[in-house]
Design a protein that fits this description.
The complex is a heterotrimer.
Chain A (H helix, E strand, L loop, with lengths): L1 H5 L13 H10 L3 H7 L13 E5 L5 H6 L1 H12 L3 E5 L3 H10 L4 E4 L1 H10 L4 E2 L1 E3 L7 E6 L18 E3 L5 H13 L12 E2 L3 H10 L4 E5 H10 L6 E6 L7 E4 L3 H5 L4 H10 L6 H6 L4 E3 L6 H9 L5
Chain B lengths: L1 H5 L11 H20 L13 H10 L7 H36 L1 H4 L3 H16 L2 H12 L4 H25 L3 H8 L4 H40 L2 H10 L3 H30 L9 H21 L9 H14 L6 H36 L8 H19 L2 H11 L4 H25 L4 H8 L4 H8 L1 H26 L6 H11 L3 H29 L1
Helix pairs in contact in B: 2-15, 3-17, 4-8, 4-10, 4-11, 4-12, 4-13, 6-8, 6-23, 7-8, 7-10, 8-10, 9-10, 10-11, 10-12, 11-12, 12-16, 15-18, 15-21, 15-22, 15-23, 16-18, 17-18, 18-21, 19-20, 21-22, 21-23, 22-23
Chain C lengths: L19 H9 L1 E4 L11 H6 L8 H9 L4 H10 L15 H15 L3 E5 L7 H17 L3 E5 L3 H7 L2 E6 L2 E7 L5 H11 L1
The chains are: A alpha/beta, B mainly alpha, C alpha/beta.
């Protein structure tokens, strides 16, 4: 986990298997002598135009499920839009932001904060849609049972505990909890020994269960789903929940419409997302009932808080 | 005549080698200081409540995820990892061979300033971890496979250049000088006088690098470059330990193949078959390696064009523009200073742990010369397998699982790095033990010494030098690796770097990177001096 | 190494039939000077000599002695007899071949074995030291009723220090006689066969 945050690379040929098309396209321009000599020539083909829509997502819950089943998302999108869709799995928040800026990714499922970062670095980028639950997303503060703290709204009681956030630029695992902590008079960078960054919501749960950290905060959606599955260690106690804020959303890059040759791409994507029938596998993968439209202004508060906490520059 | 023998002699006094004595005392002091920094002498560091969490990780080792679908995913991912490792190593060797010419003493002769400057330049690519290179390059090259290849090739190339230069410099230069005296030009003289005697060392080092590259490719995968590391990172994010172990076993298998191949070739080089014809094994190795590299370039679809494309130039300008000038505000510099101390302490504790473990395990892990009992062979294989697993589990995973049973601070990161380094150092120490002269120990056994005594007097004095030299070398590597593990809790410069990069504060990130490079360079210098004192 | 035929008896015991501990005790009673010396070059002379006592020492004692040499008087006395006392704290690898040979003999003196096996113990020594070395090697064994078995090429040394001569050629015993009874004809025949 740490490495993912230590070093936010994104990735080269991030696909586990490069799609044949992109390989051929790249090879066309190539000339790696050795490669050609060994593998036989004649694999080159003219690049197809217009290009495919490059989609990526940073899932916060069950990443391995969504990423390994990304074919589902790509196929559904491709069928609905009559457009070639190439899904690129990304594990790292900052890498996704960079790849969006460089134009390697056209449409990315961002968290609230990373979406704002990406939009600020990429003029012309537009939010498209978000899940129903993202309009009023929350985070849950958890404590180790050993602290003896009973559920309460008083975040100030957390100040003397060893405390861990999730990922550094996670909206639900860092930004908003830090904001609400500060509202409650707790220094979000205080805590004995400084706050930890577990790297993921599940890691936060495990660390608080172990008692190495006495308290932590995570995405409420993950908390609920883990509670329903019954996999939360009894040593972890729900302490408080934050007020709602706007979180995850699909962000579309400025060059996507031109590259794919679909001028009304944003509208068609919005139609696709909002038109997904209940029970569709895509909705299931994203753990949502429905997608709803979203505006840039919906995340103004996130931007403000991000600037305030020094996470958006 | 007898007077010569009976001459009265003043009783001699035991005089310690002052320089080595000083280094020894200094090392002890630094270790104590580091342990104190890790909180070992001030209160609790262990968290017994987390044993269940740690147990879950350990227990999963016995039942890794084995469903066909996941194994298929792993198999395809392994191909990507191999491709990155092979292409990255190939690039490193090309860069290393060129770089070696630039930094070898033979090239510079007496122009010491030039030589020092050339070495200094190499410290920059070497000082940054592959993962750091990966994250820098992704900002310039985006999704191009070159990111992974360059991230391995650049730092490895710099290390390889240094090692190749040392190997060439250590070859007796008589033949080279004789050729020069006979009027040969420098390149020709080097080709005929230096390269042939150094070739064996160069080839076996290249194969060693390949095994390292497989592990690096996995770390790169964890930061997004695909392959086994990517699968491992996904499963790790939701703590699916069964899947994590499957990926670790797959990685171990790759490392094992690279290791066995390297060992076979090294043995072949050490004792070539008595024939004037080409050795078929070595020929097959060279051809096989070339094919593997060719396939890797094709599989990854590497295109030189993307390195010089307009977009690459634009992104490079963007990043450099944001990164220059580096941030120099006092707060940042003070933080860097404090965290640099953490980083050094972390690396010292890590190396001490690894060295202690390596000394204890090197004996059992070494393949005994000659015949040995079945029990001994099984024990040896188990220890070697254990060491392989220690280095196949990436340091960030160690850091998290150790944080379950240790309280946050420098210690979990240090131990994570320690067990990982033990995996590497244990293997190196076992190799060094295997190469020792077995006769002194046999002679001691013949005069009735207990096994412990025979080991203390017949093995330890001989093995101490090479093993300590390896440990000092790994110390320099550990400093770079702290960037990877220092993130949970209080984590040294790595945590700061992560924070700066997460907020895209390039100017501050540049300063932190510069600090990491300088720190690596200083440790390199200290380790170099210490190694000289050992000789 | 098991014998191809027959049995081996060392000081009255069959090594192959002994348990590990018994075999170690037996080994402690046999001292060996190898032709290639088998000293540890990186150790100081004092430790290389002290290694002769490893059969008696516990692991802890052996380890501590590497830090502060134990039994220094005996070591120095042994080295003194061989004219090496002033080099006691030198690293063994810095010594010349002849000096190292004397260190190996000193190790044996400290070990105090009953049976001494010495493979050309005087090959790199000047005549005076060679005499001295052989005397020293024989003494401890004789004092305990044991023996010195040594391979020598210098007949002068043989005549002065040995009682019995066994000549080997091609792995077979071709000569076996008391030194006193050794005649010029015997020798001529022996060297004739071995040549």
């Amino acid at each position: 986990m740490s490495s993912r945050r230590a070093a936010r690379s994104g990735g080269p040929g991030v696909q586990p298997l490069p799609s044949p098309l992109s390989r051929r396209t790249l090879l066309a321009g190539a000339g790696v002598a050795l490669a050609a000599a060994v593998t036989g020539c004649g694999r080159s083909a003219a690049p197809t135009s217009p290009g495919p829509l490059h989609v990526g997502a940073i899932p916060d819950q069950d990443p391995e499920v969504l990423q390994r089943l990304h074919g589902t998302v790509a196929d559904a999108m491709s069928a609905a839009l009559d457009l070639e869709v190439a899904y690129t799995p990304v594990t790292d928040y900052a890498a996704a932001v960079s790849l969006f800026r460089t134009g390697d990714l056209d449409l990315v499922w961002f968290g609230g904060l990373t979406g704002v970062q990406a939009r600020l670095q990429t003029p012309g980028a537009e939010p498209v849609a978000q899940r129903d639950i993202d309009r009023a997303f929350t985070s849950v503060f958890v404590v180790n049972a050993g602290t003896g703290l009973a559920p309460s709204g008083d975040l100030a009681a957390l100040a003397p505990l060893r405390f861990t956030y999730g990922s550094e630029t996670s909206t639900s695992g860092r930004l908003m909890p830090a904001w609400f902590l500060r509202e409650a008079g707790v220094d979000p960078q205080g805590f004995p020994g400084g706050p930890g960054f577990s790297g993921s919501h599940d890691a936060t749960l495990a660390l608080v269960a172990s008692g190495s950290y006495q308290a932590g905060v995570l995405n409420a959606q993950v908390w609920r789903s883990r509670t329903e599955e019954g996999v939360v260690d009894p040593a972890v106690v729900r302490y408080a929940e934050t007020p709602p804020y706007s979180d995850y959303h699909w962000l579309l890059g400025p060059r996507a419409a031109e590259r794919t040759g679909v001028p009304d791409l944003r509208d068609r994507l919005l139609d696709f997302f909002t038109g997904l029938p209940a029970g569709s596998p895509v909705l299931e993968l994203f753990g949502a009932e429905a997608f709803v439209p979203v505006q840039a202004a919906d995340h103004d508060r996130i931007e403000e808080i991000g600037r305030d906490l020094g996470l958006v520059s | 005549m007898t007077a010569v023998l009976d001459r009265a002699v003043a009783p001699p006094v035991l005089r310690r080698d002052r320089r080595r004595w000083a280094w020894g005392v200094g090392a002890g002091a630094v270790l104590l200081w580091s342990l104190a920094g890790a909180g070992l002498f001030s209160g609790d560091v262990v968290n017994p409540g987390g044993t269940a969490q740690f147990g879950r990780f350990a227990a999963a080792a016995w039942h890794p995820a084995l469903d066909a679908q996941f194994l298929g995913v792993l198999a395809r991912s392994a191909l990507v990892t191999v491709a990155y490792a092979a292409a990255g190593t190939a690039l490193a060797l090309v860069l290393g061979a060129g770089g070696a010419v630039l930094v070898s003493r033979t090239t510079w002769g007496r122009r010491r300033a030039g030589w020092l400057a050339a070495r200094g330049v190499l410290a920059v690519p070497r000082g940054l971890h592959e993962a750091v290179w990966g994250l820098l390059l992704v900002n310039v090259l985006g999704l191009d496979p070159w990111v992974g290849v360059l991230a391995i090739g650049l730092p490895y190339g710099a290390v390889t250049a240094k090692v190749f230069a040392d190997l060439v410099d250590e070859v007796p230069s008589g033949a080279y000088r004789a050729l020069r005296a006979a009027g040969a030009g420098r390149p020709a003289a080097a080709l005929y006088g230096l390269l042939p005697p150094a070739a064996g060392g160069l080839l076996s080092y290249a194969l060693y690098r390949l095994e390292c590259a497989v592990r690096s490719a996995v770390v790169l995968g964890m930061v997004g470059a695909g392959g086994l590391g990517y699968q491992l990172a996904l499963s790790f994010a939701s703590l699916r330990w069964e899947q994590v172990w499957s990926a670790v076993y797959a990685l171990s298998l790759l490392c094992l193949v690279a290791d066995v191949a390297g060992r076979a070739v090294r043995r072949r080089l050490a004792a070539p078959p008595p024939s004037s014809r080409r050795d078929p094994v070595l020929t097959a190795t060279v051809v096989g390696t070339a094919v593997l590299v060719g396939w890797s370039c094709w599989y990854l679809a590497l295109s030189p064009a993307s390195l010089v494309s307009e977009r690459t130039t634009a992104q490079l300008t963007h990043v450099l523009g944001a990164a220059w000038p580096p941030a120099t505000d006092g707060d940042l510099l003070r933080t860097i200073g404090v965290l640099a101390v953490d980083t050094v302490q972390m690396s010292v504790v890590a190396i001490a742990v690894a060295l202690l473990g390596a000394v204890l395990l090197a004996g059992p892990a070494a393949r005994p010369a000659g015949r040995s009992s079945l029990g001994r062979r099984v024990a040896g294989a188990l220890v070697r397998g254990g060491l392989l697993l220690l280095r196949a589990v990436p340091p960030p995973v160690w850091a998290l699982v150790l944080l379950f049973v240790l309280l946050p601070g420098v210690l979990p990161g240090a131990l994570a790095l320690g067990v990982y380094t033990l995996g590497v150092l244990g293997r190196l120490a076992a190799g060094a033990t295997e190469e020792l002269d077995p006769r002194p120990r046999a002679a001691l056994t013949a005069l009735g010494a207990r096994p412990a005594g025979a080991w203390l007097y017949g093995v330890l004095p001989l093995a101490a030098g090479p093993v300590l030299a390896y440990a000092l070398y790994r110390w320099e590597v550990a400093i770079r690796d702290t960037v990877l593990v220092g993130l949970l809790g209080a984590g040294g410069l790595g945590a700061l770097l992560a924070a700066e990069l997460a907020t895209f504060d390039w100017a501050a990130a540049t300063t932190v990177l510069a600090a990491v490079v300088v720190l690596t360079w200083l440790v390199d210098l200290a380790s170099d001096r210490a190694r000289a004192a050992l000789r | 190494m098991p014998p191809t035929t027959g049995t081996v008896r060392v000081l009255g015991a069959d090594p192959a039939a002994l348990s590990g501990r018994e075999r170690r005790r037996l080994r402690a009673r046999v001292g060996t000077v190898h032709q290639s010396l088998e000293l540890v070059g990186r150790l100081r002379v004092v430790h290389d000599v002290n290694a002769g006592r490893l059969a008696q020492w516990s692991a802890a004692r052996a380890a501590w002695s590497l830090v502060r040499p134990l039994g220094l008087p005996e070591v120095l006395a042994a080295l003194e007899q061989l004219g090496l006392a002033d080099r006691a704290f030198e690293r063994t690898e810095r010594l010349s071949g002849g000096q190292r040979q004397r260190v190996a003999i000193a190790r044996l003196l400290v070990q105090q074995p009953e049976l001494v096996l010495a493979d050309e113990p005087a090959s790199a020594l000047d005549p005076v030291l060679a005499e001295r070395a052989l005397t020293l090697l024989g003494e401890p064994a004789l004092a305990r009723g044991g023996a010195l078995v040594t391979a020598l090429h210098d007949l002068g040394l043989v005549r002065r220090h040995c009682d019995r001569v066994v000549g080997l050629a091609g792995g077979r015993v071709v000569l076996d006689a008391p030194v006193a009874a050794l005649s010029a004809a015997d020798l001529a025949e022996f060297y004739g066969t071995s040549a």
